[in-house]
Amino acid sequence: MNAKQKMHHILDIIAEMFPDAHCELNHENPFELTIAVLLSAQCTDETVNKVTASLFQKYKTPHDYLAVPLEELEQDIRRIGLFRSKASNIQKLCRILIDKYEGEVPETHEGLTELPGVGRKTANVVMSNAFGVPAIAVDTHVERVSKRLGIAKPDDTVLAVEQKLMKLVPRDEWTLTHHRLIFFGRYHCKAQSPQCPICPLLDVCKEGQRRMKPAVKTKNKGRTTKIANEG
Question: Where is each HhH-GPD domain found (predicted)?
Fold first, then answer.
């Protein structure tokens, strides 16, 4: 099958596996989502949700984040990795929102990526989930799965992975595909212990096939030894 046929096959399988895939970061508006995604860098969504449960009760607007000393905000998010730099970025971000956007999160990719702590991935997540603009955000799960399944090359940059997915996936499916690839990577094709033996995509996954070879060799070696002993 060609690249698009392969992508269609992959999308069909992960759609069956994770039909309800969605953004797992708890939020009620674009501003909260922006803060949550910023906090999620090098941190699990589960931990972020635990922190934002109280954080979003205390801070409702950009003004609220600027009304406290930086040290206080740092303490409020100290369970998050890189909490000091993230606290600083949050206050800088809030200042820009107030000064330039009347306290609202900008609805353009360019406006979002100019905010401190907001890179291309964060901007794509906010654009797709908060504003309904199709986008594929390439996080660590999407990158890993795309490379293992041969959608992208092992040495491709994050941007290259995003561009290849955008080319192969219909635009109206970008956001949903992003969520399903994340779920596939987070709950099935894990970084340390991928579930290759029961993976329905093993037929198109060279990485999975490579991982399965040692088991086959060990099994065959044991069979050969048994036959030799019997002889």
Answer: 39-187
Flag whether 109 is in a domain: yes
Q: How many Cβ atoms sit within 10 Å of the Cβ of residue 140?
A: 15
Query: CA 111, 175, 162, 48: dihedral to nearest 10 degrees?
Result: 70
Residue (of 2, 4, 14) closest to 180 by Cα position: 14
Distance CA 36, CA 56 (A): 10
Question: Which is catalytic among the residues 139, 155, 221, 226?
Answer: 139
Q: Are residues 202 and 112 in the same domain?
A: no
Residue 182 counted as domain residue = no
* 139 assigned to active site: yes
Q: The pTM is what?
A: 0.85
Binding residues: 189, 196, 199, 205
pLDDT digits (tens, 9 = 90+) for 138-150: 999 999 999 999 9
Q: Give the pair of three-digit tokens for residue 155.
A: 């040495």
